[in-house]
Amino acid sequence: MGAKAKKAMVKKQKKVSSQLLVSKRKDESADFLPLEGGPGRKLPVTEVLDNTATVLYIGRIPHGFYENEMEAFFKQFGTIKRLRIARNKKTGKSKHFGFIEFESPAVAKVVADCMHNYLLFEHVLQVYLVPPERVHPKLWKGVTRWYKPLDWVQVERKRHNKERTFEEHSKLVEAILKRDQKRRKRIEAAGIDYEPPEIVGSNRPMPKKIRFDED
User: Fold this and answer.
1) Which of 70, 68, 76, 87 lies closest to 123, judged by CA?
2) Strand 55-59, strand 126-130: pairing
3) Residue 98 burial (C-beta neighbours within 10 Å; 0-12, 13-18, 19+)
4) Which of the residues 47, 121, 122, 141 could staple to 62 if both were Cys, CB 3.0 to 4.6 A apart?
5) Of the ranges 31-35, 65-69, 164-168, which is most confident?
6) How many CB atoms lie within 10 A of CB 85?
7) Each residue of 107-132: pLDDT tens digit?
8) How far apart are the C-alpha atoms of 47 and 38, rounded to whole Å?
């Protein structure tokens, strides 16, 4: 074997050894080796996002699915800290959206993923995580107070039996007489021979003034 052939062989051996060393280093830094052979591969890097949101917005809440029902349903996921349904201040009726707070952010994330677009009583729920910086400081104000429905019979009775001044009574009677005149015209236009009864109490006398004789 000549000198040139020896040099070529040594050069080839160095090249192969360098390639093996590089491949070995790649395999050591790789996460796994494929079964079909080839160089090692690394697993894709997944960014871990810190989820600290524990408050959920729940929209399109159906009628009848109120505080007790909502708490009984959502406690299967985890511990509930606070819960409220938005209600009308005057009537107390539900506005069909509310908020719920869990102790664990992981539980809140699971609920948001599972219950979003969930069909409940023919209503598709809309569930979203509320970031901590977007939670209103007065969101949970008065949440511990128990909702008591209004007694509309008592409210209407009080309104009907309230004392009225003479001006208020005159205005009320005037409105009643105006509606009565319209009703009479409609009856006459329909060709019906009917005479409606007179409105009792429409002619209320003015209060008499008492004059005292000066002695």
Assistant:
1) 70
2) antiparallel
3) buried
4) 121
5) 65-69
6) 19
7) 999 999 999 999 999 999 999 999 99
8) 27
